[in-house]
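Inputs:
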Amino acid sequence: DTEVTQTPKHLVMGMTNKKSLKCEQHMGHRAMYWYKQKAKKPPELMFVYSYEKLSINESVPSRFSPECPNSSLLNLHLHALQPEDSALYLCASSQVDMGFGTGELFFGEGSRLTVL
Amino acid sequence: LAKTTQPISMDSYEGQEVNITCSHNNIATNDYITWYQQFPSQGPRFIIQGYKTKVTNEVASLFIPADRKSSTLSLPRVSLSDTAVYYCLVGGYGGATNKLIFGTGTLLAVQP
């Protein structure tokens, strides 16, 4: 199984809503990532988890709250988002080598978020 | 962090070999070079990774000169389905950070 599964595929939410994006992998990878991608732009790194601990937060606003409940799951909790947060949110995983993720990331298909 | 620079776009025809070059002048000793392919509304897909010299797999080759300040992704005999954005990344493998930062990417358009 070389898949990273993201749910939901599409999400529409208001600025006062609370929602969550979910990501799951069963490849035994111990590094997991959240990226945000706007139209016609490259993916932007948001968070990195290594061995279920947050290792990198790229100065992401607190209205985005990541969670890694176990080695297979990664969540992104959303609260009080702004319309400019509308984007494709990509989850990825990788093996860990010497304590760091390797360069081979396996991406999910993404969750398309629209904030009204 | 090593920053990458790629051409914004390239055009090619079916059956031709395509070479996309990426510049990464500030690459660190521990950094690897990785290339990804992305189709619209899909997640990026790993193509190839290398550290130095030449790496080849079933879909592409990666050429890295001795100074490692650039790399070239070579796609043999492209087809229409190779039309995509190609990203060069530098990092990973126990370097000072495992931040894998995407550059601006190269939009490859393959014509019949």
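The CA atoms of residues 35 and 45 of chain A lie 5 Å apart. Flag for discussion at group meeting.
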